[in-house]
Amino acid sequence: MTEKTFEEALARLEFIIDELEKGELNLDESLKLFEEGIALARHCNAKLDEAQGKVELLLGIEDGMAKTAPFQPEEESV
């Protein structure tokens, strides 16, 4: 089984939430879906943490603060 993308996992998690909220499942089905939902929520959270780390790296954020530097335009070649 291939790993789900964030969007696939989120869509499945939303479906599971809808099913559980309907209250029409028996206890065993509910527990099975709840367990899958917990795994999907953890998967989504890990993907979000990974994305946040990449953004912070790209923005140069260190210890919760963005590192700044004055803008220095490149000199134009003549």
TrEMBL record:
<comment type="subunit">
    <text>Heterooligomer composed of large and small subunits.</text>
</comment>
<comment type="similarity">
    <text>Belongs to the XseB family.</text>
</comment>
<dbReference type="InterPro" id="IPR037004">
    <property type="entry name" value="Exonuc_VII_ssu_sf"/>
</dbReference>
<comment type="function">
    <text>Bidirectionally degrades single-stranded DNA into large acid-insoluble oligonucleotides, which are then degraded further into small acid-soluble oligonucleotides.</text>
</comment>
<keyword id="KW-0269">Exonuclease</keyword>
<dbReference type="Pfam" id="PF02609">
    <property type="entry name" value="Exonuc_VII_S"/>
</dbReference>
<keyword id="KW-0540">Nuclease</keyword>
<dbReference type="GO" id="GO:0006308">
    <property type="term" value="P:DNA catabolic process"/>
</dbReference>
<keyword id="KW-0963">Cytoplasm</keyword>
<dbReference type="InterPro" id="IPR003761">
    <property type="entry name" value="Exonuc_VII_S"/>
</dbReference>
<dbReference type="GO" id="GO:0005829">
    <property type="term" value="C:cytosol"/>
</dbReference>
<dbReference type="GO" id="GO:0009318">
    <property type="term" value="C:exodeoxyribonuclease VII complex"/>
</dbReference>
<dbReference type="GO" id="GO:0008855">
    <property type="term" value="F:exodeoxyribonuclease VII activity"/>
</dbReference>
<keyword id="KW-0378">Hydrolase</keyword>
<protein>
    <recommendedName>
        <fullName>Exodeoxyribonuclease 7 small subunit</fullName>
        <ecNumber>3.1.11.6</ecNumber>
    </recommendedName>
</protein>
